[in-house]
Amino acid sequence: MSGGEVAGILVAVFWAILVSFLAVVLVRLAQVLRATTKLVADVTEQAVPLLADASTTVRSARTQLDRVDAIASDVQEVTSNASALSSTVASTFGGPLVKVAAFGYGVRKALGRTDEAPQKTSRRARSDGGSRTVIVGRTVPSARRRKQKG
Fold first, then answer.
1. Considering the entire predicted model, what is its pTM?
2. 131 - beta bridge partners?
3. pLDDT per residue as tens, the chain (150 positions)
């Protein structure tokens, strides 16, 4: 055997190994593609019903939100009606009730003044150097105190 024949045999063996390697790679690639195709088919089979369920859920949620919106608008209307009623009651009964309360207070004061005995007064020195008149149970403001003395 000559050198050319040995080189030819080596090249033929190299090509045979290379073709065998590529055949194994192609077989594995075919298996991966088959598995991927099966996986995509399974996902598609499961995704279609899930999308239908999601669509149904979204429609149901939209219906519920419409109901909640109607309830919220009714609550807003009730709130405004309650506010209007409150202001109407306050304007209708507020003034007369204040007058009745003031009248009752005046009557109590008038009846209380005639029954009271003269109150005891005393003078105490204030810490700031001034003085104030003390009536038992009450403090008389300074402007009224001058009128009581005179």
1. 0.39
2. 125
3. 788 899 999 999 999 999 999 999 999 999 999 999 999 999 989 998 899 999 999 999 999 999 999 999 999 999 999 999 988 888 888 888 888 888 889 898 888 865 455 555 555 555 555 555 555 665 555 655 555 554
Smallest CA-to-CA distance from 33 within 48, 25, 45 is with: 25
Residue type, 63: T
Give the distance from CA 121 to its chain's centroid: 60
Residue from 139, 107, 117 nearest 126 by CA: 139
Complete DSSP assignment for 22-72: HHHHHHHHHHHHHHHHHHHHHHHHHHHHHHHHHHHHHHHHHHHHHHHHHHH
Structural tokens at position 91: 């304007």
